[in-house]
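Re: Re: ligand-bound prediction request (bumping)

Still looking for help on this. To restate: I need the protein modeled with pyridoxal-5'-phosphate bound, output as structure tokens. Inputs repeated here so nobody has to scroll up.
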Amino acid sequence: MYQSLGIDEDIYRLGETTAAALADRFAEIDRTAEICQMKVIAAMQKNRVSTECFETSTGYGYNDLGRDTLEAVYADVFHTESALVRAQITCGTHALSLAMAANLRPGDEILSPVGKPYDTLEQVIGIVPAPGSLREFGITYRQVELLPDNSFDFDGIKAAINEHTKLIEIQRSKGYLTRPTFSVAQIGELIAFIKGIKPDVICMVDNCYGEFVETIEPSDVGADLVVGSLIKNPGGGLAPIGGYIAGKSEYVEQCAYRLTSPGLGREVGASLGVSRSFYQGLFLAPTVVASALKGAIFAANLYEPLGFPCVPNATEERHDIIQAVTLGSPERVVAFCKGIQAGSPVDSYVVPEPWAMPGYHSEVIMAAGAFYQGSSIELSADGPIEPPYAVYFQGGLTWAHAKFGILMSLQKLKDAGLLPGQA
Ligand SMILES: *Cc1c(COP(=O)(O)O)cnc(C)c1O
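Reply:
Sorry for the wait, this slipped through. Here it is.
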């Protein structure tokens, strides 16, 4: 089968030996998925999820049982007082923007104690001037870089917290950076430190790509708000749109009033037929995340021995589903992405090219043969065309597909004569 799909025998064999050596780590990932699966089932049972919950609402969406019950389920999965889970939250950036805009007022300051936030947040916050940014509303921003060893600069953070500091933005995943992703335990330490200085500050965690990678979430270690996208981990590949915000009631309520309108809040917002996908996606999410994690670890163990630095490296523990592989040249980034595309179930015949995508500052090449546009819990890769020419990839609804896509990326490098020792 692999041969007929275009994988050479040497690439296939390398894949087999690589995967065979990972059995113990894969067993550990399955164990985490099992615990997370039980968390989801427990939350669904506790909230009496029933077939009525899959009914849809239209128009204003008053009394939508499915939507309201799902929000209770999310709150229980994340062990929070409340959650907002809506199709009207269009993506992860929107969810984060909403959480900040809803809870900040003119004169307040945001602090990122972990360096630069995700690219798209630069315009949300106004680090890069943009219409409608928080900066235009008199909300200021400050960031403290990580120390050279990527640990938290506790002294710097202490010095940066002032009377205006209202919200702390902690990004769990590395996003497009080459720093490591933080573990939930590390995030807990950081929050405890910050609350020790200013107890009433809102600690918000950008949880994108982190959900269900560990058995606990940032909300288990003191985060006041956790925020993420349903076309990533918690949507399980089935949610066609959406975002979530889970946390303390007072902060989540603010988000509801900001999302819809003061006075209306969470009472409106028709589910338009997506509820079943939201439930089923959440139900599948723990095992889907496990597949994606296996793919990421497999890739690191395939590429690192070939001389391509990987973050996380081949042996490190995982805290999100993203794998960065530094390929060292634009041609290799393009070939890698072509391989991921060629291995996809959908749009496999399409050839991706770099383009100036809105919200990103260099050209980016993106590969995704996905059932949902931009779905990055499905196997997908993106590479900004800039040094060090790293490709970031993530996802894989099934481990078999993740494995195949990654083998195909290597095949495309080989076909283009771009592997070390070829030339
Ligand atoms: C994907 C991502 C976002 C933004 O989510 P979109 O759905 O792409 O808008 C924000 N932060 C991190 C860490 C992400 O990975």
